[in-house]
Amino acid sequence: MKRTLAFLMLSVLIVFSAGGIEMQKVAPVKNVILLIPDGTSLATVSLARWLMNYESGEQTVNKLAIDPYICGTVITHSSNAPIGDSAPTTSCYMTGYPSLTGFVSTYPPADPENDIYPVDPTRAYRPLTTVLEAARWKFNKATGLVVTCEYPHATPADCAAHSWQRDNYKWISPQMVHNNIDVVIGGGAAIISEKEIEYLKGKNHSVYLNDIEKMRNDKSTKMWALFGKRTMSYEIDRDPAAQPSLEEMTRIALGKLDKSKEGFFLMVEGSRIDHAAHDNDPATMAREMLAFDKACRVAFEFAKKNKNTAIVILPDHGNSGISIGVRSREAYDRLSKKELFGNLSKYRMSASELALRINPKRVKHPEDTIMKYTGIRPTRSDIDALNAADTARLKDWVSRWMTAQTFIGFTTGGHTGEEVFLAAWHPQGHVPSGVNTNVEINAYLCALLGLSHKDLDALTEKYYAPDSTLFDKNKYDRAIITENSETFLKVTNRSNKREIRLPAHTNLVIRRANASALPDTAYAPSVAIHVDVNKQFYINGDALKGYLDKP
Fold first, then answer.
1. Residue 474 and residue 392 share a domain
2. What is the predicted pLDDT for the residue at 516?
């Protein structure tokens, strides 16, 4: 009884309150744009702003596009830990439920001694409907993802896939393809399979791999355009002739999605701020944040012209413990803008890319390359240290050396647990303020679409029902089988011999009227998720049982 009451109390919190704004008073809008700068601590925003200010040469404090709309902060966390990675933190924004490290929009198993909110152990590993999925299923809105990481990475996956293993792209990629997202622009040209491309083209999507001109000239409303083998290049390394900026990708996506009569949901991620933070690469972090801010400017311009669009901007977590000022450099608090940011401004290449260019085993005079891309000539002792460095960890040496030439400090190369900033815009001014939890952000996103958290739960019950509860053992034969490395759910009606096979992580339905009939292929309204831990498929059973029960 106590556990049930706790769940009800949490539900009330989710539905009625977020950062001091009552959800019933939030006017729904036609379009929602969610922008996430991955792994962005507030000091990273400050660093980007100061670098922009220094490089402008003006005697003023220039403001970022997001600055007028910053309205609060967000506490992000996993289900059982105050510090989370991208998978459970974005998952919470999208589903309303915190989850475990590595879990993509999937209900967590219980950890009673550590769970921050009550967790129902009977729901463990169940896929959870996301805001993006709800926008399409409930309102037939167009959907889009724009990222600079590979498209099945944690944050975009949290919008349109479900897995307890964020790195299992063999599960996640087909889910995202078969979830019928209208527009996807990002990294991962070497990840998508020919089979997945064939499916997309069969659903009237244009598909472009490393082809910037065809992407730019495409006139369709449905398009996947992928660049780079996995991630796209950092902004500081990007070749504009080969890869688009996040700003351009956002503009193209909005142009296509805006043609939907029912509206759209778009998630834009500045994915690689997080990667640069893991590398402790301050110049790359700042450039990635500035590139993200330009994408935000595009979103604001669209929303103000459209007048029926809301924008939410927030990181999923902090990263690196970055500070402007470091104890090892005396009197740093008295330094001018030039002294603080001058060297940072000279950097023209990321630490990871520079490490590839100066490998001592390949380059005779690495000091010349370092000078070319940093504007600073290393000392003899620097070169001796470079030559002695482990070539497998050369990137770490380069990051430390580049950072040492600045007054920037780091406490870690991992995620951090401080609150992150929140910025928002609503045509009627209905924005959250103050300190919010990640659960409350989901409530706000739902309210923008005219949904409640109960609606998400109802959609989960419909589209992600455990198959073992759907098929009466006295009437149907059910089995999970693996053939040619593919896993299927096979269900047969004993009386009429009708059969369906559901390939895992797709929306395909392979049907047979009887054992001797040729199979045909149909499409379910949602993807069939296979969870190997509990040997369960999660499916939309109503549509499938209708076929099996035909006379």
1. no
2. 87
